[in-house]
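Regression test attached.
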Amino acid sequence: MTGPNFVYVSYIRTTPEKLWQALTQSAFTRQYWFGHAVESDWKPGSAIRFFAAGKCDVQGEVLASDPYRRLAYSWRVDFDEALRNEEPSRVSFDLEPVGPEVKLTVIHDQFGAGSKVYPGISNGWPMVLASLKSLLETGEPLAATSEAALCAARQRSLDLARATAA
Amino acid sequence: MDAVFKALADPSRRELLDRLHAENGQTLNELCVRLAMTRQAVSKHLAVLEAANLVSTVRRGREKLHYLNPVPIHEIATRWIGKYERSRLDALAELKKGLEEQ
Amino acid sequence: MSKPSYVYVSYIRSTPEKVWQAITDREISKQYWGRSNRSDWKVGSSWEHQRVDGSNITDIVGQVVETRPPHHLVISWATPSDANDPGRVSRVSFDIEPQSAGIVRLTVTHSELEPGSQMERGITWGWPLVLASLKSFLETGEGLPIPKIKEAQQSK
């Protein structure tokens, strides 16, 4: 039995090149992703680490990388014992130029039924993606996704995980 | 691809790329600080790099932040190493289509 | 079979009042939605979603079901020809909640949709576009060119 899927579609006034960079470079991710830097060479099969404040929060492996068009990687949460034991899920980004915008489709799937990671990510993605859009369109990310907000974000994911029926 | 090679052929421009590689997301002022180049020269070089898609800019208020785009350089490397498998990407496209149709 | 419900969450650097106004003001809604939302927004009143190309064609109609400005608005939603068929009237609620630091969370819930209907297909494609446009409009002063984007998508 499979678990839920998270799907988010947004349109951002930017270029596919900039959006790709914003998804794959620490100089960008630190600004809109709760202060996370990302380490990877983005080649298929390569490792990925998202880390902030000295801690690695998410680990993964690049599943697909077609610059400016598609990116996919596996997602294993690392900042908590219980969450670490779940099978990795998968995130994919689809970038499609539409008129003067880029349509970004994010799909986070391959969760098992009763996943404890899912509630946290379905709460977190809208904030991170909204902040990414604000960063690319206005030059400023949303304050609520800064590094200062990191602890609260981790706590929220843990609270949501615990609230999930065992 | 030609624009990329031309852009990379100049040592001053390669230095700018090195600076951004060391610290990404710098303004024109920040890039000018330790370089033995006039501000005008740096600005011109950045324009060539941006046209070659090696550098992207994001406007913040009146400033522009410059970000290194490593993809074109990776692409040059990949050509000689081997093409990426199309099949994995096709599978993902199918997945996306399937989910949209639900 | 139960009717599906779609939830869209957006975080916008704005105030609840401005978000409320953008949704309910007939002139402001034109600027990012490509349509005008017209009503007096009192419970029981009707509302219309009208084209702004001079045709005055109304694409969607409904009634105001609940209202608690500027935080909560619920409207019914149907095409004019379906408006009297309860099975084809769906429901949209807007929840506009202030978060920290000048950010508003907007949650749009579209429920009671007929599964597999053209309306369901239309809105699941349309809401992300309208909400992205609303966010760009409130944050940059400019919405997205919705007619252009619709054209680009439909030509595929």
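Expected vs. actual: identical. Chain C is about 30% helix and 35% strand.
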